[in-house]
């Protein structure tokens, strides 16, 4: 009996139509990743420029909030860094997959797909955390 190697696990090959769809997917993922990087940069810019003014307004509106400003800021920076890694992985998928298809390099193509896997993993964890947060918020209403 022959053992299957990891390279021929599914014995699938990319045909012309599949290649075109994958190229279109790569273009859209590159656009979305660059848009995400721009949005994260704008959020960081707003935080730097308007952060002190927002903190002053919050101090006036909620006097006990000054003790929670540093943890909120740390949480915000942590979320931005996780989103930054996620967007970078989507960008890595688009670049490496496109190069793997153009150069017929299976290793580069696989590294691009690994970037997509990490992107979906981070997105799934963030979606589950968001869902749990929404459930907790809804249960506190009743």
- Helix tally equals 3
The SSE order reads: HHH
Helix content: over 70%
Query: What average pLDDT do the residues reach?
Result: 86
End-to-end Cα distance, whole Å, is 63 Å
Can you tell me the residue ranges where pLDDT is under 50 for at least 5 consecutive residues? Answer: none
What share of residues are in beta strands?
under 5%
Computed Rg: 22 Å
- Helix- and strand-based class? mainly alpha
Number of DSSP strand runs: 0
Number of domains: 1
The outline comes out as: elongated
Main sheet summary = none
What does this structure look like?
The structure is a single chain. This protein has 3 helices and no strands. The chain is an all-alpha fold. It has one domain. α1 runs antiparallel to α2 and α2 packs antiparallel against α3. The radius of gyration is 22 Å and the shape is elongated. The mean pLDDT is 86.
Descriptors for this entry?
142 residues, 3 helices, mainly alpha
Which secondary structure elements does this structure contain, and how are they paired or packed?
Blueprint lengths: L15 H46 L7 H35 L2 H36 L1
Task: Describe, in short, the structure shown.
By secondary structure, this protein is mainly α.
């Amino acid at each position: 009996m022959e053992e299957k190697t990891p390279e021929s696990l599914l014995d699938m090959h990319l045909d012309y139509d599949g290649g075109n769809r994958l190229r279109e997917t790569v273009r859209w993922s590159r656009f979305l990743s660059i848009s995400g990087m721009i949005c994260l940069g704008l959020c960081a810019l707003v935080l730097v420029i308007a952060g002190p003014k927002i903190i002053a307004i919050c101090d006036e509106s909620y006097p006990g909030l000054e003790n929670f400003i540093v943890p909120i800021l740390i949480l915000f920076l942590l979320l931005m860094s996780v989103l930054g890694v996620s967007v970078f992985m989507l960008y890595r998928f688009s670049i490496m997959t496109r190069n793997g298809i153009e150069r017929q390099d299976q290793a580069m193509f696989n590294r691009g797909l690994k970037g997509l896997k990490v992107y979906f993993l981070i997105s799934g964890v963030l979606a589950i955390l968001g869902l749990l947060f929404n459930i907790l918020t809804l249960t506190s209403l009743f």
